[in-house]
Amino acid sequence: MNNPTVSNTVFHFTGIKDSQRGIFKPDHESFNTLKTILSSREFLMKPHKRQLANSKGQSCADTIWMSCFTETPLGFLRSHVDVFGKFGIGINIRWAKRLNAQNVIYVDSGHVPPIVEQEINRGIIGIMEFSKFFKNLPPEYKNGVTKGDPYFDKIPNPEYPTNILGTTESYIYREEREWRVFGRGDHSKLLFTPKFDYTDVDCLVCPSDFVKDLVAFIKFELNTEPIKIVETETLT
User: What is the pTM of this model?
Assistant: First the structure.
């Protein structure tokens, strides 16, 4: 990567409470969330109501499961930490691309088509074709799921969403440089969460007071090779 302001690592932070920017959980809770992600090799997905719009100008609302990341380089993460907390995991962009993750498109709500103007601050998910996006779930997922709940097209990748064109947010959030990874589920239940391998992890971020415990956790609980740890206090 020749541009130093663009990172090959995307970061997910675990410090905020109930998705509220600047409202932090206690440090021990944030640390436990980080350990849970590492143990499960899954990022926590949350449901978000979003407006779906396709290339034909059709629109409808539904629930999308997602996890959020920033492509802000390590050397510029200080301001992001101040909003999203002191504990995080940096994962290689190859993993995100493999999962068909999308970087957020920041737009001015005064310069979008009328069909999405009212929904711009909630975020719009661009879908290639509704006919591919909305399908009956496969038999193993039928329990408690109603016809018409979102199911991502299985072609060509049997595991990850392939029909998403992009996701938007208001330009006031543009400094977050956000990427989103999508899970699969209905309005009330997450049915599939993409996993990562420890080789996908570029580094971990935590305060110096937690480094010793994190090193021990990686060694004795994860039983994997050492992972680079960056102390939050060193970020600029």
Answer: 0.79
